[in-house]
Amino acid sequence: MKLPHLHIKRTLLFIFIFLIVYTPIIFLSFLIYKSNKSISSLKMSQEEVKVSQENFKLNLSEELFNEHLALQEKQNLEDQLSLVETELDKVKNTPEGATYSNVNKIYEMYDDFAGKLKRNETAKLKTDEQKTLLASWGQFLIDRKFEDLTSQIEEANQKLDDDYEKYLATLPPPAPAASAGYSYLNVQTEKGTYGTSLIKVAISSVRVKTVSASSENCKDNCPTKSLQDYVKENNGFAGMNGSYFCPPDYSSCSGKVNSFDYALYNSNKKKWLNKDALSWYKTGLMTFNGGSAEFYKKSSDYGGNGIDAGISNYPSLLKNGEVVVKSDDMTSYQKIKGTRGVVGIGGENIYLAIVYNATVEEAAYVMRSLGAKYALNLDGGGSSAMYVDGRYVVGPGRSLPNAIVLIR
Question: Transmembrane segments in this chain: where (predicted)?
């Protein structure tokens, strides 16, 4: 009768041993399961973070990204420019570099000489003395007698200028103008009606000067003057702002403050500034010589004729009375309405105009309605200035690196 009792004891012992052995295993398995679940959850969270990051990248402003690329490109270009300038300085300090600089300077001086020679011949002045010098100049260049050649060309240019000044002094003075030729008009065009400050006078009754505060090319912190100073210093009666330049109140002009890139003939120094820009084909050019004027839709078409004044800028507006400015020629700034400066010629008159609340293209239509046949866009906006008979009728605006002056 005791056998069943023994069997029960063994069964309980077996169960007890089973629980002791397998309970930790079961508990450990449960912990492993929970850990795997937590790890899986963490992986899912990590994936969600990655997705969020990708979405954030995709939603970044394209404008900011483009600006970042533009800044990078600008920095790269500036670095490359610095390297090129360093290498150029090294070349200039070599004998070959010095020779190149001398030859280049002499060719520029010769260009001025050729223009002045042609100017004097047109005025039927004697130029035999200067022509005989030409035969010896080639040998001077071959023998690398740069200083002697430079001295001779300078003397020849000075003689041509002196003879031309004496010729101008013999001409009868123009009849005094009844008025300065200034008016404010509301000009009707097919594009609308535009308020315009206008100086319109016969070219034959005035002498045109293009003047600059600097006598040499300038790249940064360039000198400037008020329009009033330009007019008074040149004994003028009227004047207007000149070509585009980089004003000090623009942050993008850091490193090139008050500089201008376009070719300008300094009438007082009788020389071109930024002469290399005459080869540009997207800029227009207007020149003056005595009582006549010439217009070039492309500055590169200028042949080097002798002149008294000359100014280039962009874009050209009128040629033969037709509007030639196109949308592709303009920047976004030129396509919005603002204050526009223009110089024009037509019907033996010169036009200096400041057009209000107009795009550059609309300013071209205004000039055509006024009677101009040829017109060139100038600076405007905060640089707009017009001075007539001792007072500002527009401006004074910013201090200017260059200007157009009219002299009776």
Answer: 12-33
Cα–Cα distance measured from residue 281 to residue 232, given in angstroms and rounded to the nearest whole number: 34
Contacts of 258 (CB under 8 A, 6+ apart): 218, 221, 222, 223, 224, 245, 246, 247, 248, 399, 401
Position 127 pLDDT exceeds 90: no
pLDDT in tens, 15-55: 555 555 555 566 556 556 655 655 565 555 556 656 555 65
Distance CA 232, CA 144 (A): 44
Q: What is the pTM of this model?
A: 0.62
Give 225-252 pLDDT, tens digit per residue.
999 999 999 999 999 999 999 998 888 8
Contact 377, 360 (CB under 8 A): yes
Q: Which residues are within 8 A (CB) of 225 and not within 5 positions of it... i.e. 6 or more apart?
A: 213, 233, 399, 400, 403
pLDDT, position 176: 40
- Is 207 within 8 Å of 378 (Cβ atoms)? no
d(CA 366, CA 358): 9
CA separation for the pair 407, 400 (Å, rounded): 19
Domain boundaries, the chain: 94-170, 182-407
